[in-house]
Write a structure and sequence with these properties.
Elements lengths: L9 H8 L4 E7 L2 E11 L4 E6 L6 E3 L2 H8 L12 E7 L6 H9 L10 E3 L2
Antiparallel strand pairs: 1-2, 1-5, 2-3, 3-4, 5-6
Length: 119
Amino acid sequence: MLDLDLRFTDTQLQALDHGIPLRLAIHVDGAIASYIDLRYRPLSRQYELHLQNDAAARVFVSRARLIAALDRIVLADLGASSGSVRVDLVSSALPAPLRLPALIDREWQLATPSRDWGG
């Protein structure tokens, strides 16, 4: 289990609350190891967390519970007993009108530091 310490901006959280899905890329030692998709379903008023290799999404009744679940992400097959991990928002997965702002606006950048594990 990795302690990712994800920090979302208000812009990202508002986008999620308005039904815009967010895709996060998990980089392990510089290479993309996995993706996490976050989504809000307004009609059912539920948040979803989908890991790349999972068959089904996990469902949450509140955004706070969704964010808390991100602290308990388990990545299989890290392939090393130590290394570094960082998480980025995948701007190319956003709707077309938001892609350019996501590349240049700091409000679209995750404020999540790179983390080391093992030793």
